Prior knowledge:
144 residues; alpha/beta; 17% helix; globular
Amino acid sequence: MATDTKIKSNVSQVVPFLMITDMERSLLFYTNGLGFEMTNKWIDEGRLRWCWLQLGAAALMLQEIKKEGHDSWIPGGQMGIGVSIYFICEDALAIYKEIKSKGIQAKKPFVGNSMWVTGVSDPDGYELFFESPTNEAEETVFSE
Length: 144
């Protein structure tokens, strides 16, 4: 099978797939808290088991683990340990202020690698960071 398409020119997006323990709790966090919009879903046995969430040009997929029956799986530890996802945005400070106003605990923004950086942990322990370019000095900490 011959093809002229190179891998690097054929890939257009990466979408993290996160296994979660409670779809309702996670949806509240991602949609009400962070502003994601559900654009696709899978209903299994009358329950929402998988969804595609969109925020601007970024996306995530969430799937609730089945704890019983066919295809069940019980994780050996906390789900999100060691997983960090970075969203590059126009204004990380605006995102910080907005999610704080919704009662979500966000990490105090600081400058690292010429970017304002703030982050949150989702209900399963996945770390989500929002970054935006800045000319502020490295290690500057945001003061409100």
